[in-house]
Amino acid sequence: MARQKVFIQGEHFIGEFPHDAEIGFQASKRGLRRRLCKVDELRGMKNEERIKRLQALYVTKEKAIRHDQLKQEAQDKQQTLIRQKMTVKDAGKQWLAEILATNNPKTYRNYKRTIDLYLAACGNHVLRQFSRRHNITFFNYLQAMPSPNGGTLSAATQNYHMRQLNAFLMWAYEHEIINKRHQLKKAVQPQKDMETLDIELLERLGKHIESRLTHAQTTREHRHLANMLRAYKMATQSLLRIGAIWAMKLEWIDLDSKLIRIQDNLELDWKPKKLKWPNKPINQHLFSFLMADLATRPPQERYFLDNGKGQPWYADKSDISKFATKLCKECGLPAIKPFHWGMRATMITHLLLNGAEPHKVQQLADHSSLATTMLYFNTRKVDQAEVAELLPEV
To answer: CATH classification of 199-385 is 3.40.50.300, yes or no?
Structure first.
């Protein structure tokens, strides 16, 4: 019997079979290995009798393997036919189920909204039939759709839904529901400079929060301002998004290792957004602040932004931004999102303009790609200001 087909391994005779019966064994690829019987079962047999017995076992096992392969091929063909006939609604349900399992409920609701809008615009057709016509129909539907604030949807909102539709189509392509990738038509948007604060304005906000905290007259006001100062320090010194700061538990803060260990927060049903580098370093400024802050925390507090009872300061992280916006207005700062543009984007831009290596900034900011990080490299603001000063007075 050929050595490559049957051999002894431990207490068993092992049969090796080609993956494809028509191609046979391949020198660069190990065959399928299956147990035939125990060595003891054939002990005492004559050599010829043992060989015949092994040959019979080998043939039986090979037939079983081929039967299973044919059965699997039939199932695969059936599944392929099902995928090819899958409608947008059915495919959307599968996709959204995966989204719900791997993302937070808000992300799920946003993606579901896009699917619902697409169905309203284009109907529940077979997804494999998606074409440029469907893209344009959805595009026109979004352009004509009323905005909750009056008028029609902005180009940014239209493109938001187009990006999510594209994510759905990419998922369908990867699951062989559609057979090609699609380049979607999107609304034309004017290219905007990254709007950030100057460091001096950001410092003004920090001093304003500290001043308000010093003069707080009630326990409630003191807690609000203390938490806002904590959020301000964490956002400017770690570049963490407001969601991570809102969901952060005190146990995530490891002062001994000078790390913040970002994790899922099951209590809040919160997961970090595409977090690539979950351990965030604590720099010396933040370390000094945290040392003093944590030393004064009562034992019942569990959250970095705590309501005093071991619960999150606010039930919704958007309320933190609303309070921050109010404080920004009080000290005359521009009307931009305080945590995303005011703090996070300002510090990312500052790092890039002051020579920090972009890929290191990318990791600290948890951007999926370096291209996203480089959007914050706002040299135009600096360059235009320098050139404007050279204009002669006429």
So the answer is: no
